[in-house]
Design goal:
Number of strands: 2
Radius of gyration: 20 Å
Number of helices: 6
Shape: elongated
Helix content: 55-70%
Strand order of the largest sheet: 1-2
Structural class: mainly alpha
Strand content: under 5%
Length: about 140
């Protein structure tokens, strides 16, 4: 009888997500990451797909034009977050450190790293650019641009 009761009992309601706190959490992550590089998607407060949906809902429901534009920028920046392997994360970390260095601090070891790992880094940067363009297209197709 337990299975029959479960069929006819009211469905469990999922707890309502606190969109504002999720967006704020994502904003804090954005502030802490480099705008010129890629970041590992595992630092996001939830899956990238779920965060995409929440940001779209937030953009659509926000009345303040300035806030809406800021959230659009954050939405597009979601393209910078990619699932990275440990090896790819190491490449990103090394290349970011080198690229942030002043020219006088770049030695032969750094040049060797750039020569050996530059292609991997370039591919990741291109993937992020492609994703940012895709995010922009989502906004355009949804009429939120």
């Amino acid at each position: 009888m337990g299975w029959l009761q479960s069929i006819f009992s009211p469905k469990q309601v999922e707890p309502k997500l606190d969109y504002e706190n999720i967006v704020r959490s994502y904003g804090a992550i954005l502030e802490a990451t480099s705008k010129e590089s890629v970041s590992n998607a595992n630092v996001l407060p939830m899956s990238k797909d779920d965060l995409t949906k929440i940001l779209l809902i937030t953009i659509a429901s926000t009345k303040d034009p300035e806030l809406r534009e800021n959230i659009k920028v954050c939405f597009i920046a979601l393209g910078n977050f990619i699932e990275l392997t440990d090896e790819q994360q190491d490449v990103v970390n090394q290349m970011d450190a080198i690229l942030k260095s002043s020219p006088e601090n770049i030695d032969m070891a750094a040049i060797t790293v750039m020569a050996e790992k530059g292609d991997v880094h370039s591919a990741l940067m291109q993937k992020a650019e492609d994703q940012r363009q895709s995010m922009k297209q989502i906004l355009q197709r949804s009429g939120l641009w």
